[in-house]
Design brief:
Length: 224
């Protein structure tokens, strides 16, 4: 698709939405600031705000391959700071997904590209849980468990982040949770239940990558 085709597509979209009311889609023009920071994966096209029943303007979305929440990623840190300190969001959601291309790539031999540096944390998770993963039949099933374990690791990264710790210490209400999305049914599986304090975060950190939570689909809270 050329740039002109994108512009033409945008004109068609905006014209269609004007009839359907942009306010219905985006939320009221004078609405409150966003309330959720969504940390998702680049190759998951499920729309975050739709998945949790919010308007688009309620959610700040940060995406990277394999939904990383790295303390070395300046763009992520700037987004986290904006969301936590300026918007005073109430929830951080780390969302992995099944059938993730980045996770599948981490199961292949390294080829020396920059991407290998980015997905090294996935390989580290796989090394740490080698026995568990070896007992799972099928690459697809193994990849899905790696997605779940990675969500857990990224939640740990978020709750260890000084920006989040500072928010809790000054009494800001902030919950951090981890989920995995399925493109097949659109449901979110809860991997890490909401953590809303340093004490709750410490309990997760003590278990570290050894923990593994498998729960049935859990509907996310809806707004209004
Ligand atoms: Zn992915």
């Amino acid at each position: 698709m050329t740039t002109d085709a994108f512009i033409e597509g945008n004109l068609r979209w905006a014209a269609g939405k004007a009839e359907a009311s942009l306010e219905v889609l985006m939320g009221p023009a004078n609405a409150d600031p966003p309330r959720v920071l969504w940390i998702g994966c680049c190759d998951c096209q499920l729309p975050p705000h739709d998945l949790i029943g919010l308007h688009a303007q309620d959610v700040v979305v940060y995406k990277s391959p394999a939904n990383m929440a790295s303390g070395h990623d300046l763009a992520f840190l700037a987004t986290l700071e904006l969301a936590v300190e300026r918007y005073r969001i109430s929830d951080v959601i780390v969302c992995g997904h099944y059938d993730c291309a980045a996770v599948r790539a981490s199961m292949e031999p390294q080829d020396g590209h920059l991407f290998d540096h980015w997905i090294e944390p996935l390989r580290a998770v796989s090394r740490a849980r080698e026995r568990v993963l070896a007992a799972i039949a099928g690459d697809g099933a193994r990849a899905n468990v790696i997605s779940e374990l990675n969500v857990r690791e990224q939640v740990i990264g978020v709750v260890r982040n000084p920006l989040v710790r500072s928010a809790w210490r000054r009494g800001q209400r902030l919950a951090v949770r981890g989920v995995v999305a399925s493109k097949r049914d659109g449901l979110l599986r809860e991997i890490v239940a909401p953590l809303a304090s340093e004490k709750e975060a410490s309990a997760l950190e003590r278990n570290g990558a050894a923990g593994e939570v498998r729960r049935p689909p859990t509907p996310m809270p809806r707004r209004k």
